[in-house]
Amino acid sequence: EAGVTQFPSHSVIEKGQTVTLRCDPISGHDNLYWYRRVMGKEIKFLLHFVKESKQDESGMPNNRFLAERTGGTYSTLKVQPAELEDSGVYFCASSTGTGGDTDTQYFGPGTRLTVL
Amino acid sequence: AQSVTQLGSHVSVSEGALVLLRCNYSSSVPPYLFWYVQYPNQGLQLLLKYTSAATLVKGINGFEAEFKKSETSFHLTKPSAHMSDAAEYFCAVTWYSSASKIIFGSGTRLSIRP
């Protein structure tokens, strides 16, 4: 079974440009999460989808970030326009969403974003 | 509010020595606790998780962690370090009324000396 995949693995853009990150969850996983780690700090939650609906977007830093999950399959995270402080590693995770102690989030390898 | 504190951003041990990575949590409700590991150039991998069953949890690669409510701790240990254990380790907490976000500690980078 394929794990969570993310594309691209690395992205280098200039301040003011737009970047779109993609996440493909494990097949059948209704829950999809985005997290971010800026350099030297902890991994922080951005938002949570249940199928195509945003369940919790309390971690989104500002309105330059837009996440979508059309059809409840893959998700994209767009940053427009990118700022220097957006640099970091963006992780995606997915889970079956049944809750309780059987629910585990599986993480992708991350996308390293560098804004120059 | 829930939070996680990892003591020591960098830990170095000799090959064959005991590994001890410290984690303390704060939670207003019974927590579910995790240790994740990130090997170089890879994603986060679940090492082990505590979900209110046995307080001593065994994970992959010989790691284990003990949940101590009185100390609000969930320290990660391995009796004998191997060179392949060099990685960054993250303690994390969540609560499960339903699927929910994970709150991570700041990470501890483990180095193994030959």
Keywords:
heterodimer, A: 116 residues, mainly beta, 4-stranded antiparallel sheet, globular, B: 114 residues, 6-stranded mixed sheet, 5-stranded antiparallel sheet, 0% helix
- The helicity of chain A comes to under 10%
Low-confidence stretches of chain A: none
Count the DSSP helices of chain A.
0
Largest interface: A-B, 30 and 25 residues
**Main beta sheet of chain A:** 7 strands, mixed
Write down the secondary-structure element order of chain A. EEEEEEEEEEE
What fraction strand of chain A?
over 45%
Tell me the quaternary state.
heterodimer
Number of beta-strand segments of chain B:
11
What would you call the structural class of chain A? mainly beta
User: How many E strands of chain A?
Assistant: 11
Rg estimate of chain B, integer Å: 14 Å
Question: How would you explain this protein's 3D organization?
Answer:
The complex is a heterodimer of chains A (116) and B (114). Chain A is mainly beta. Chain A is 0% helix and 48% strand. In chain A, a hairpin with a 2-residue loop joins strand 5 and strand 6. The radius of gyration of chain A is 14 Å and the shape is globular. The N and C termini of chain A lie far apart (37 Å). The model of chain A has no long low-confidence stretch (mean pLDDT 92). Chain B is mainly β and 114 residues long. In chain B, a hairpin with a 4-residue loop joins strand 7 (64-68) and strand 8. Chain B is globular and about 40 Å long.
